[in-house]
């Protein structure tokens, strides 16, 4: 099993139209799950929408299935001017019933200092929207200020689907931001969710990124992370 993430600037009208073009596993060979979403920035404060950029999150049997989709389906062709990356799931916390995640025990990262991708998925409890946004604002603001964060995108498909995608220079840097005592915002958000869940279901995937193509915000972030693992200012 692999996961792919696709982003493209389509314009406001086309990005909204893409929400209705979600590929279906029963119609696309090798597709296990797909979600289309609008995007925004990860930062402190209220959500910062980027209404012209669309996202596609998908899970596949293997690389060959994704290759066929890229070559034959009209949606990825329209998103071809953007950026996409393939992800090998390494670790999962929580569960996402529409997409049962398979983690190969032998697929531990060969290089713990290499770039790591994180995908979070949540189905929001609407009554918990305001507390969720407050907790998320603090954690997002801390993450956005971390020099080890190479790229990040907020994901949303109203009214319930929310998520994030981020690329970090290393597993150590990602873990330090998420769980380090000097940066407690993420840990506090996790504790608040455990005490009274923000979501009906949620999952946190740590992945090895590979096979990136195109540009995201003017650069290829996997190459950028690998070229500057220390995050030189």
Describe this structure in words.
This protein is of the alpha+beta class and 233 residues long. The chain is 28% helix and 37% strand. The chain has one domain (2-227): Alpha-Beta Plaits (2-Layer Sandwich). The protein has helices spanning 12-18, 63-72, 74-78, 129-144, 171-179, 185-195, 221-227, and strands spanning 2-9, 31-41, 48-60, 83-94, 116-124, 149-157, 161-168, 199-214. Strands 1-3-2-6-7-5-8-4 form an 8-stranded antiparallel barrel, surrounded by 5 helices.
**Please, how many domains?**
1
Largest sheet: 8 strands, antiparallel, barrel
How much helix, percentage-wise, in residues? 25-40%
SS elements, strand count:
8
- The amount of beta strand, in percent, is 35-45%
- What is the CA–CA distance across the termini? 36 Å
- Here the CATH topology equals Alpha-Beta Plaits
CATH C-level name: Alpha Beta
Indicate the low-confidence ranges by residue numbers: none
Tell me the overall shape: globular
Strand order of the largest sheet: 1-3-2-6-7-5-8-4
* CATH architecture assignment name: 2-Layer Sandwich
Determine the structural class based on helices, strands and strand pairing.
Answer: alpha+beta
Mean pLDDT: 88
Number of helices: 7
Give me the strand/helix succession.
EHEEHHEEHEEHHEH
What integer value in Å does the Rg equal?
A: 17 Å
